[in-house]
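Notes from hallway chat w/ T.B., transcribed later so I don't forget. T.B. wanted the structure written out for a chain they're using in a teaching module, and asked if we could keep both sequence and structure tokens in one place. Agreed to drop them here.
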Amino acid sequence: MSTSLRRAVRSLIITIITLASGAAAIVLADFGRSFWMFALLLVGPLTIGLPTTLTMLLIACVWGKLPWLHGLGTFVICVTLCAVPVQTLSDHCVSRMIRLRLQNNRFA
């Protein structure tokens, strides 16, 4: 499997896990579960899933302002389709930054 395909699959998995854990955290907080469970479920969306979380918040800001942007199902599909490329680009930039830093430290 090529590197770009592996990166895209990894980004899709991270996006799905981020959206699922964020939704679970909101539902559990709504039912009055303890704070540690809520905090534990938000570790992923606020660390490795941050690009997905920010994409979801950006889409939520404009959702409903246009007449053709409505409905929960459409929101989930739109967030997933927008978050995967953002997560992939973020993953690519971070891996490139790490690789360049390792190359620079090797010759220093």
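Follow-up for T.B.: The chain has four helices and no strands. Might be a good example for the class.
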